[in-house]
């Protein structure tokens, strides 16, 4: 059956598995989306439940439990790990603490084999399940939900990069994502797509199936710059490259160029990722005027970005790409690889240069470095008066359908 605006949910069940597994870590873009859904659904009158696949089974939260979990995510004040957590060897300590908190506040919990019974005991007919974190979308979960009368499932797909660019992934990531996407396109009542580009990619991989899809750009809150960290770049022109240090983000291009960029500093703001030994070795060698700044909070990053000559974003593939949107919201120039998603969301605001054209990248960086621009917000780029996509618009589209 199609989901329509007439099929209002009796309750919503939000999957919170991803946020639980990544407890205590800096939020990625996908984490922020799952958190934004939790923020929004807690403001609505519709009954809310949360589902988490833990190391020992499943945990079900009611609205009160979701609110407590939400507050803990905001404060980072997770409680101590319980005795059960010690049974699972190798469990990340922060995840152990988060799961222990959930067991203390949950409405119910169960072993995997009893998931269907637990959900039928507590969830009303007509519940709508939302999975927006690319986690825990399994046949077990979907089978359990199908036994609840008039239940519906919506899945948000952020991108199909693991299938389109497996060279940038761990081998197991491509395999698991293929299963995830097949499960979503075959069984979800609605596929939420963060862009028209993602929608096109999903339908291409789903063929000959034609799942019901809707495009809703992700909200990007207006950045709030804080006090930036100080360093050797103070008083000099500098650029920011923002994102996990992984092959797809193409830090190698900037390192290749930087020895020929006079005077300017490069600030790499992001944690180290995977399968990127060559780039990490180059960073460990401490190249001149290149600074690795992991673990900064949003205010520090935005403070650095606001005072920079520009954001450099040579990423080779993106499903949405938050940093160029955040730069545009601050009025900071952004030099990006020419990817369709940026044209869709940002139009002509960024400066585009194909990642294969090193001469053009060097030329554009030198031009920005030699300008007299400093951190003056919207005066710095052609996006004057531009506002980023809002969560209000996103949820206005999505929550009338699921």
From TrEMBL:
Keyword Transit peptide annotated: no
SUPFAM superfamilies xrefs: UDP-Glycosyltransferase/glycogen phosphorylase
Transmembrane segments: none
Pfam family, one: Glycos_transf_1
Claim: Transferase is one of the keywords in the record: yes
Domain Glycosyl transferase family: 234-348
Keywords from the named record: Transferase
UniProt-listed InterPro entries: Glyco_trans_1
CDD domains: GT4_MtfB-like
PANTHER family noted in UniProt: GLYCOSYLTRANSFERASE WBBK-RELATED (PTHR46401:SF2)
The name this protein goes by in its record: Glycosyltransferase family 1 protein
Organism: Tropicibacter oceani
């Amino acid at each position: 059956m199609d989901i329509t605006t007439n099929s209002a949910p009796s309750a919503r069940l939000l999957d919170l598995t991803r946020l639980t597994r990544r407890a205590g870590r800096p939020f990625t873009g996908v984490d922020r989306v799952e958190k934004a859904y939790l923020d929004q659904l807690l403001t609505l009158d519709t009954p809310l439940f949360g589902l988490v696949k833990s190391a020992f089974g499943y945990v079900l939260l009611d609205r009160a439990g979701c609110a407590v979990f939400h507050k803990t995510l905001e404060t980072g004040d997770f409680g101590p790990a319980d005795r059960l957590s010690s049974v699972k060897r190798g469990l990340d300590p922060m995840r152990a603490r988060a799961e222990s908190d959930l067991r203390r506040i949950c409405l119910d919990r169960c072993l995997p084999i009893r998931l269907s019974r637990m959900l039928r005991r507590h969830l009303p007919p007509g519940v709508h399940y939302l999975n927006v974190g690319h986690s825990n979308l399994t046949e077990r979960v979907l089978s359990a939900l199908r036994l609840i009368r008039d239940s519906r499932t919506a899945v948000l797909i952020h991108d199909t990069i693991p299938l389109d660019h497996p060279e940038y992934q761990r081998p197991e990531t491509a395999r698991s994502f293929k299963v995830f996407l097949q499960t979503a396109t075959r069984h979800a009542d609605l596929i939420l797509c963060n862009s028209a580009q993602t929608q096109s990619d999903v339908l291409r991989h789903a063929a000959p199936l034609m799942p019901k899809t809707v495009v809703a750009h992700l909200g990007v809150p207006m950045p709030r710059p804080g006090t930036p960290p100080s360093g050797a770049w103070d008083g000099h022109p500098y650029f920011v490259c923002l994102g996990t240090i992984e092959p797809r983000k193409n830090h190698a291009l900037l390192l290749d160029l930087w020895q020929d960029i006079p005077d300017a500093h490069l600030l790499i703001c992001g944690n180290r990722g995977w399968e990127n030994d060559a780039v990490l070795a180059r960073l460990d060698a401490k190249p001149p005027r290149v600074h690795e700044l992991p673990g900064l909070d949003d205010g520090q990053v935005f403070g650095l970005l606001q005072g920079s000559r520009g954001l450099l974003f040579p990423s080779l593939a993106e499903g949405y790409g938050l940093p160029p949107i955040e730069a545009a919201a601050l009025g900071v120039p952004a030099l990006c690889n020419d990817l369709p998603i940026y044209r869709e969301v940002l139009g002509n605001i960024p400066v585009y240069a194909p990642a294969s054209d090193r001469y053009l990248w060097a030329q554009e960086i030198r031009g920005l470095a030699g300008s007299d621009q400093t951190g003056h917000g919207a005066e710095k780029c052609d996006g004057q008066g531009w506002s980023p996509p809002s969560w209000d618009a996103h949820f206005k589209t999505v929550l009338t359908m699921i």
